[in-house]
Write a structure and sequence with these properties.
- It is a single chain.
- This protein is an alpha+beta fold and about 260 residues long.
- It is built from five helices and 16 strands.
- Strand 6 (about 60) and strand 7 (about 65) form a beta hairpin.
């Protein structure tokens, strides 16, 4: 039997979330050390026509799927998106604070900060809480006066930019797909297919990724939500297409012989 600690318990931000639970055995209660693992697959890459953003929708709590259709792409303003990886509550809270800070900067300066400026602002905010055991790993994807921008920010204040970035437990599998096909001048349709393919293959191999794949595109006139598709269907479609391509090549070789 599990009970939440009573109000006299003072929660320490450095404790694991599972340490708030007690195991009741008669008159004695012992704290349970439950490590709540989590994972995800989020990715983004820059192209000549904008930034393509994709993420799965499975939220996990330990070995349980807490939400199969959560949203891991958060809108900050019309030309800026952020992906969430890590602790959902931490990501949602700090990205909400970033949205407010960006709005205040816009009101005071008369224009939106650049994507790099937004990344630097979030990194400074998080660096001040580096000892609080936060778990925030986000990709800031936007369009500003310098064109498409993509920056990674971590909860210890780390930040850097890149053309292709993937975050989460499924990111190694996603990189395996992206590195073999990505080009900056990919046509829009091929870029969308690559993003969906990378998330689908990652979800197929990573137990903590799954559900659906959300696909967004950040363009000069703002971001658009392209699609939400079931990952199992996307993966089956990709496998079926590969089999058809293989059969077509074999038939062509037989005809040539």
């Amino acid at each position: 039997m599990f009970n939440i600690w009573n109000k006299r318990h003072k929660y320490s931000p450095r404790s694991q979330p599972g340490s708030q639970f007690l195991e009741c055995e008669g008159a004695h209660a012992q704290p349970l050390n439950i490590l709540l693992s989590h994972g995800t697959t989020t990715l983004a890459f820059r192209c000549s026509h904008g930034v393509v953003v994709a993420a799965d929708t499975r939220s996990s709590c330990g070995a349980l799927v807490s939400d199969p259709s959560s949203r891991k792409v958060i809108t900050l303003h019309r030309h800026l998106l952020a992906t969430t990886s890590g602790t959902s509550a931490d990501c949602a809270t700090w990205l909400r604070l970033l949205r407010c800070a960006l709005r205040m900067r816009q009101l005071s300066e008369g224009r939106q900060p650049s994507v790099a400026g937004a990344a630097k602002l979030l990194a400074l905010m998080l660096k001040g809480c580096a000892q609080k055991d936060l778990c925030v790993a986000t990709l800031l994807c936007g369009w500003d006066c310098q064109g498409p921008g993509l920056h990674y920010v971590y909860s210890d204040g780390t930040r850097f930019s890149g053309d292709v970035l993937a975050v989460g437990s499924g990111s190694p599998y996603a990189y395996g797909v992206l590195d073999g096909t990505y080009q900056y001048d990919l046509p829009q349709a091929e870029a969308f297919l690559l993003a969906r393919k990378a998330v689908a293959h990652a979800a197929h191999r990573d137990a903590y990724s799954g559900g659906n794949v959300d696909l967004y595109h950040v363009r000069p006139d703002g971001w658009v939500c392209v699609s939400r598709e079931d990952l199992s269907q996307v993966y089956r479609g990709l496998v079926f297409r590969t089999e058809e391509d293989g059969d077509g090549k074999e038939d062509a070789q037989e005809e040539s012989n």
